[in-house]
Write a structure and sequence with these properties.
By secondary structure, this protein is mostly helical. A hairpin with a 6-residue loop joins strand 1 and strand 2.
Length: 273
C-alpha cells in the first residue's frame, strides 16, 4: 500500500475514463482514506515492527553439538526452541498487555473497510476494453483497479493473520510463565531447576518481575540481593541453591534491604541478611 511508484504507474497507463470510474467507485466507499492511519494505529498498539517483518519468519540455524563433547555439554549447546527464543525476545510484550477493547475496535474498523473493499472488488470486472483509433476492433486489457483492490485486500488479510499469530504466541508465553511463577511462589524444586533452558526461564521470570516492580516504584533492594546471590550460585553450578535464592527474591519483592544485605560469594546455600 505504500508503494507510490505502483500507483503512479497505474495513473499514467489507465485511460482518463477509467480513472474517473475509480474515483466514482472509491468515493462511495466511506472512510477508505482512513485505511493507512488505521493500520498505523494497529502497528502502534502492537508496538513491535518485527511482528510485520518477513525476516522474523526465517528459522534459526540448528547447529549440532561439536564432535567430542560429553553428553552434558552437548545438551547445554543445543539450540533454543522457537518458543524459547520468542518468549525471551518478547518479554516486554508479555508483561505489557495490549488493550483488548482498543484492539477489538481497530480490528472491527479494518474488517468493516475490508468488507467494503471486498464488495467493490467483487463487482469490478477483471478486464476493460477499448476501441483502438482507426482499427475498429476492441482491445481487452487487465483492469488495474481490480488488481489494486486485490493487493489491498491481501495486505489486510496478512496484517490480520500477523496480529492473531502474535497474540496467540504471547498467550503461549504467558501460560508458560504462569506455570513457572506458581513453581517459584511455592518454591517447588522440580528437576527443571537444574536443566538448561528451564533454569534460565525461571531466572528470567524472577528478574522480569523485579524489573517491573522497580518501574512501579516498589522497593526491590532485598529482592536484588537474592537475585545477586542466585547469580553467584548459578556461576558456581549450584542450581538448586540458586533456585531457592530466586524463590526468596520473588517473595521479597516490595521489601527493603535496610543496608544489611551482603552478597553471598561463598556458594553452598543462602546467607540471609
Amino acid at each position: 500500500m505504500g508503494d507510490g511508484s505502483r500507483a503512479i504507474s497505474v495513473i499514467k497507463n489507465v485511460p482518463p475514463i477509467m480513472l474517473f470510474g475509480i474515483h466514482q467507485t472509491m468515493r462511495r466507499l466511506p472512510n477508505w482514506q482512513s485505511l493507512p492511519s488505521a493500520l498505523q494505529d494497529i502497528y502502534d498498539e502492537i508496538g513491535d515492527p518485527d511482528v510485520f517483518s518477513l525476516d522474523a519468519l526465517a528459522p534459526a540455524s540448528l547447529n549440532s553439538a561439536p564432535v567430542g563433547t560429553n553428553s552434558v555439554n552437548a545438551f547445554a549447546l543445543l539450540p533454543k526452541t522457537p518458543t524459547q527464543r520468542f518468549c525471551e525476545r518478547k518479554a516486554w510484550a508479555i508483561e505489557r498487555e495490549i488493550d483488548p477493547v482498543r484492539m477489538n475496535r481497530l480490528k472491527f474498523f479494518v474488517f468493516y473497510i475490508r468488507q467494503g473493499l471486498g464488495l467493490t472488488e467483487a463487482l469490478t470486472h477483471e478486464t476493460i476494453g477499448g476501441t483502438l483509433v482507426g482499427e475498429g476492433n476492441e482491445s481487452v486489457v487487465p483492469n488495474p483497479l481490480k488488481i489494486q483492490l486485490k493487493l489491498v485486500l491481501l495486505v489486510f488479510d496478512v496484517v490480520e493473520k500477523e496480529v492473531q499469530t502474535f497474540q496467540a504466541n504471547l498467550d503461549i508465553c504467558r501460560k508458560k510463565n504462569s506455570e513457572i511463577e506458581m513453581q517459584v511462589a511455592q518454591c517447588i524444586q522440580l528437576v527443571n531447576v537444574v536443566m538448561p533452558g528451564s533454569r534460565d526461564d525461571i531466572y528470567n521470570l524472577v528478574q522480569t518481575r523485579i524489573d517491573a516492580a522497580r518501574e512501579d516504584f516498589l522497593e526491590v533492594s532485598l529482592s536484588e540481593f537474592w537475585l545477586l546471590t542466585a547469580d553467584t550460585q548459578r556461576t558456581a553450578g549450584e542450581y538448586r541453591d540458586a533456585f531457592e535464592s530466586l524463590c526468596s527474591a520473588y517473595r521479597t519483592i516490595g521489601s527493603a534491604c535496610n543496608g544489611n544485605c551482603t552478597p553471598n560469594n561463598g556458594g553452598g546455600g543462602n546467607s540471609k541478611p
